[in-house]
Write a structure and sequence with these properties.
Residues 57-164 form the TonB-dependent receptor plug domain. Belongs to the TonB-dependent receptor family. It is a multi-pass membrane protein. This protein is mainly beta. The chain has a single domain (30-743), classed as Maltoporin, Chain A. Helix content is 7%, strand content 52%. It has 8 helices and 42 strands. The strands form 8 sheets. It has a 22-stranded antiparallel beta barrel. Strands 1-6-7-4-5 form a 5-stranded mixed beta sheet. A two-stranded antiparallel ribbon has the order 2-3.
């Protein structure tokens, strides 16, 4: 195994120190409210760190705290993000292992058009050269989730159109603590989490084990496991000077490892079979399996030179290897992709019947592709923060990052046939014969963000710079040893400035207006001369608190000069990852978030919080083009972007008491089209709307023991979530699990 060592200096300002500094600078005393301090993640890896900070950005931002994550104890990021307006998601496997996330109408496929971060570091396997997120951090081990949209996220790149999601892992505690959680439910689903940590005067640590597994809720014809087993291991170690040192420093080392085996497939169902039994899987998918490993190393040093100046620097290495061995095609004289077979089973009747495995087939009928890939993402980033002023509070943030990543594809296809209802490998593929190439990227990114707070007015101009070199080395499918006999190379370069500006004005303690404009950007592919994705994005919103009703309403307009599409197997394409220009597009929308305690005037011992979130997303292509990509197809002016629901809402009602808590969450997702188009959505290009209710309850037995039960899909609603990668796919049916937590 190839190892990379990245050791540099300069690290972590804790959030509690940050708050006390803000107080010394004379910031409004509301910062020091007890509830704010309780929500702060004392960890320099946070972008926001609290709901207070999120509600005072000059752009749209959301902070999901540990208490909120614990309400339903979701292991699925899709369900967590349903509570955030402006997020569009389509599911795939029912467990959230590989989510497809869109922020403000960006292309959702494999979450490739947003910045995914863990502890402030890019976490997609190769965020520049191959951003499709086939790895996603285990959300069950996260302590908080931060979502930034609009001009609020110009510091974070390379993708600046939709926004950024930062997941904050378990922090080092301030005192000795431990926690163990055991959960079990239907489908033989189980969870185990063990956390132990402590802090001393000049040293702190935390270690964590997290396992999540299930036998799956689908049933393969003839039997077989359709579930998964994923384990995470995390350790953090911190050394620091005395807290009162003239120059305070700390050094944090984080190491994380995960391994996963998932019996997941790209093969869905035809419409007729889905209507009869949505949880069926065809026998031809019985050999499909994803095996993956992920490694993460971070070394972060924080230097506090004075009350006003701090510098944080992080060196990081992320490694990911996976082999998704999955059915790709059927060949009964002509190779037909499985997405085409399921989209038109009448035309491809012989191929469809072969998938069922009810009769023997000739040899080499099925191609099962070994999508064998290795990823490396590494770099160093440093951020300096300076604060000054009294009547005019000002701050300046300067950041720089050097980053390298690569995707190494070494793929092959084995051929199979059915004999006595069993898939038998009839030809062993030549390794590298399907794909044998390396995509790579080198990037230098820098940003500057200035903040001026003058009484009721806050003003934040900023600018980002990205210099990117994208390349590909293709050894060809006949050179398994990579001797270079059939070598081809290509390269593309991008040099771009990305400005943004935001402002906030507080009319009164309970009313403010904010807005901004910024440039949207997403890197192109490695085809020489290919244009980057670009847009100009506008937002205008208000935050208010009226008679206990707290809320935010935001309107936005994203004006794309050039939208990029990607050729992904996950969307029915060839899987080349080549990007293509989709021309001018308009995306606009409204985001509404309302919170109210129905027992606002009663005793504080009992709470009845009600939360309502609504998202309207309207999309339109302003240019016509013809695409081989399955979800775009032939596009005409006026067509809508596929896989974006126009309307969705989420309603949460809770009952809180010092001894127990009950929460009910209901979410509605509008029907959406699965191929670009306009007007009435054809049945075969449509995923119907759905309304799903979840329920959760917790009993706090004492200060150590908590008992809980969580129900997913309370009314066992049957619904489809997508038509990609190939055929209709179901959402999770009724699921229940019980858990016990012991903490000290």
């Amino acid at each position: 195994m190839k190892w990379f060592l990245t050791v540099f200096s300069i690290m972590l300002l804790t959030a509690n120190l940050g708050l006390s500094q803000e107080s010394n600078d004379g910031k409004d005393s509301t910062v020091l409210k007890t509830e704010v301090l309780n929500e702060v993640i004392v960890n320099g890896s946070a972008i926001l760190g609290s709901k207070f900070e999120a509600s005072n950005r000059t752009g749209s931002a959301n902070y999901i705290s540990a208490k909120e994550l614990q309400k339903f104890s979701y292991n699925d990021i899709n369900r967590i993000l349903r509570n955030v307006p402006g997020v569009n998601i389509y599911e795939e496997d029912g467990f959230g292992l590989r989510p497809n996330i869109s922020l403000r109408g960006t292309s959702p496929e494999r979450s490739a058009k947003i910045n995914l971060m863990e502890d402030g570091v890019l976490i997609a396997p190769a965020p520049y050269s191959a951003p499709a997120a086939y790895y996603f951090p285990t959300i069950g081990r996260m302590q908080a989730v931060e979502i930034l949209k609009g001009s609020s996220q110009v510091q974070y790149g390379p993708n600046t159109t939709g926004g950024a999601i930062n997941m904050i892992s378990t922090r080092i505690p301030e005192r000795f603590m431990g926690r163990a959680t055991l959960s079990a439910g239907n489908f033989n689903s189980k969870n185990t989490q063990i956390v132990v940590g402590d802090s001393f005067k000049n040293f702190g640590f935390v270690s964590e084990y997290y396992n999540y597994n299930s036998d799956g809720f689908k049933n393969i014809d003839g039997g077989g496991n359709t579930g998964f087993d994923k384990s995470d291991y995390l350790a953090k170690f911190r050394m620091n000077t005395d807290e009162g040192a003239k120059v305070y420093q700390s050094l944090l080392f984080k190491i994380q490892f995960s391994e996963e085996r998932a019996n997941e497939t790209y093969l869905g169902l035809t419409d007729a079979d889905f209507n009869e039994n949505p949880y069926r899987r065809y026998r031809a998918s019985s050999e499909d399996v994803m095996e993956a490993e992920h490694q993460q190393y971070q070394l972060t040093h924080f230097l506090k030179l004075s009350q006003a100046l701090s510098i944080t620097t992080t060196g990081y290495v992320n490694k990911f290897k996976r082999n998704w061995y999955k059915l790709d095609d059927v060949n009964l004289g002509e190779r037909i992709g499985i997405n085409n077979v399921l989209a038109d089973p009448e035309t491809y009747a012989m191929e469809y019947n072969a998938l069922l495995g009810n009769t023997d087939t000739p040899e080499d009928v099925f191609g099962i592709k070994a999508n064998n890939r290795r990823y490396t993402s590494q770099g160093i980033q440093s951020i300096a923060r300076l604060r000054w002023g009294a009547d005019w509070l000002q701050s300046l943030e300067l950041g720089i990052r050097y980053h390298e990543d690569e995707e190494d594809r070494f793929q092959w296809v084995d051929r199979y046939g059915f004999q006595n209802n069993e898939l038998i490998r009839t030809t062993v593929g030549i390794k590298g014969a399907d794909a044998n190439r390396i995509g790579n990227a080198k990037a230098v990114a820098a940003h500057t963000l200035y903040k001026l707070n003058l009484g009721r007015f806050t003003f934040t101009p900023g600018i980002r710079y990205e210099n990117i070199t994208l390349g590909r080395i293709n050894y060809g499918t006949n050179d398994a040893t990579r001797s270079g006999t059939d070598l081809s190379e290509r390269e593309n370069q991008v040099d771009v400035w990305i400005p943004g500006i935001g402002a906030n004005y507080t009319f009164a303690e309970n009313l403010s207006v904010f807005g901004g404009v910024h440039k949207g950007f997403s890197p192109p592919g490695n085809n020489e001369g290919q244009d980057a994705e670009s847009s100009i994005n506008y937002e205008l919103g208000t935050r208010f608190n009226y008679h206990g009703i707290q809320g935010e309403v935001v309107g936005y307009y994203n004006d794309y000069q050039n939208l990029l599409g990607s050729d992904l197997a996950a969307t029915g394409g060839t899987g080349s990852l080549d990007q293509f220009n989709a021309g001018e597009v308009r995306v606009s929308g409204v985001e509404v978030s309302l919170n109210y305690n129905l027992l606002n005037n009663s005793s504080e011992k009992v709470r009845l919080p009600l939360t309502f979130n609504y998202t309207l997303t309207d999309t339109e292509f302003l240019s016509s083009f013809d695409s081989a990509n399955a979800i775009f197809g032939e596009v005409s002016v006026g067509d809508e972007i596929p896989y974006i629901a126009k309307n969705q809402f989420n309603l949460n009602l809770g009952l809180g008491h010092e001894k127990f808590g009950i929460d009910m969450g209901a979410r509605y997702i509008d029907a959406f089209r699965t191929q670009a188009g306009t007007g009435t959505i054809p049945t075969n290009l449509r995923v119907d709307s759905n309304f799903v209710v979840d329920l959760s309850g917790r009993y706090f037995y004492n200060s150590h023991f908590t008992f809980s039960a969580n129900i997913i899909n309370l009314f066992d609603t049957t619904y489809a979530v997508s038509r990609v990668p190939a055929g209709l796919r179901p959402g999770h049916p009724f699921g229940i699990n019980f858990s016990i937590t012991y903490g000290f």
